[in-house]
Amino acid sequence: MTTKAGFLRARRPEQKQQRYAAILDAARDLAVRDGVGAVSLAAIAAEVGMHKSALLRYFETREEIFLRLAETEFQEWAPSTAAALAHAGPEPDDVADVLAGSVADRPLLCQLLLHSPLTLERNVSLDVVRAYKQAVRRSLEQMVPALHRALPALDEEACLDLFAMAGIAAAGLWQAAHPSPQVVALHAEDPNTTHYPDFRASLTRFVRVYLSGLLAA
Amino acid sequence: MTTKAGFLRARRPEQKQQRYAAILDAARDLAVRDGVGAVSLAAIAAEVGMHKSALLRYFETREEIFLRLAETEFQEWAPSTAAALAHAGPEPDDVADVLAGSVADRPLLCQLLLHSPLTLERNVSLDVVRAYKQAVRRSLEQMVPALHRALPALDEEACLDLFAMAGIAAAGLWQAAHPSPQVVALHAEDPNTTHYPDFRASLTRFVRVYLSGLLAA
Question: Where is the HTH tetR-type domain (chains A, B) (predicted)?
Fold first, then answer.
């Protein structure tokens, strides 16, 4: 059964599970291609070959779909990054590069970090927000000790600060690095009027500088 | 003539100018009250007492209205902050506090910094984007020398870096500090699951730490 198959009503639990996963996959593909903000519930339904009303038996809202994807992003990001940090250091720049790279490798996470507080956490039930925040918390409970082991000079509070600000920087730099066609045209017209950063390079620079500020405090 | 007057068609240039300003004022009031993302063109039209079609003789789109407000925010922010920086320093923390305070005093700017790349710069003509980016550029041309005079150890590139990242941090921390009702309820249920920062305190801390990282580089 493919995501384009035009599903009949699922009756068995494994069929339901397949459809649930197919909806998430379709939303992920569209978000990577078009940007999270541009993906409607109707577009996800069309991509997966279901009616919108059928899709809403699986998810409360469009925003739940993306918040569930964000949950998965955190669940995947934390163990792989903790493992990479086990071999990083002792130079702070080395640790910063591993951390920045682990975020830059997840363009969907970078977008979802911006959309979560702005819209996703507003248009879902308390239960869905709780599941997402618990996933974030479990990720940080893995990541903080891993970062502290890589850089013992950084205490727990500073580790949390670095994660929080790296997330905010990733969300903002992602937007800045993927400008509108109008901004691209303006830059071509006169590079002095506006410029836009390379995402990975600017995030890496940010994490290096902020980490060095935390260590200097 | 008040903004609620239910305007007849404006014929004289000064009447047109009044309506243009009344539309901007209404959008600003609604954005401060409800958040930029929640303010529709229809709501602005209702607030100012005009038909939507009449309002669209003054502005291309909802997004132009907010990008014009962002232009004004930059035009007002730069001279007052440059003046405040003239009396700041020589301690980096002192300069950081002036800079962070000048941004935290402008909650509308903090919201518009997030919405500009995400939506505003996408739904307007090249001319409107050009006017906005030129206003940003002129602000930075005032601010960079003012910051460099307050902290001569910070070169021009580092000054620009500080402004760019302070803007991204302000946009992200503003969202984090103004969470959804669901996140507020979750925090009340169990403060360990999620927390949200105080906006001014977290922005000030960020600018201090990032500035110290730039000076350590």
Answer: 17-77
Q: Which class is domain A62-216? A: mainly alpha
Q: Does B206 touch chain A (CB under 8 A)?
A: yes
ipTM associated with this complex: 0.92
Residue A17 Rama label (left phi>0; alpha psi -120 to 50; beta): alpha
Percent of chain B scoring above 70 in pLDDT: 95
Report the distance separating Cα B194 and Cα A64, nearest Å: 18
Higher pLDDT, A45 or A90: A45
The burial of B67, by beta-carbon neighbours within 10 Å (0-12 exposed, 13-18 middle, 19 or more buried), is given as: buried
Alpha carbon distance A129, A162 (integer Å) = 23
- Best probe of the A interface among B129, B132, B187, by most A CBs < 10 A, is B129
Q: What is the pTM of this model?
A: 0.93
Residues 36-95 of B with CB under 8 A from A: 37
Integer-rounded Cα Rg, in Å, for chain B is: 20
Helix residue ranges per DSSP H, chain A:
13-34, 41-48, 52-55, 62-85, 92-104, 107-118, 126-150, 156-177, 181-189, 199-216
Rounded to 10°, the helix B13-34/B62-85 angle is 80
Q: With CB atoms and an 8 Å threshold, state whether B176 touches A124.
A: no
User: Considering only CB atoms, which chain A residues are within 8 Å of B168?
Assistant: 168-169, 172-173, 176
Domain ranges of chain B: 1-59, 62-216
Enumerate residues 108 to 147 of chain A having a beta carbon within 8 A of any beta carbon in chain B: 114, 117-119, 121-122, 124-126, 129-130, 133-134, 136-137
Q: Is B160 on the interface with A (CB under 8 A)?
A: no
The structure tokens listed for A71 are 């949950």
Residue of chain B whose alpha carbon sits nearest to that of A114: B172
Q: Do A62-216 and A1-59 fall under one CATH topology?
A: no
Reported as a pLDDT band with limits 50, 70 and 90, residue B7 is low
Q: Count other C-beta atoms under 10 Å from residue B193's C-beta.
A: 15
Instruction: Measure A91 CA to nearest chain B CA, in Å.
Output: 14
CATH code given to domain A1-59:
1.10.10.60
Among chain A residues, CA nearest to B190: A130
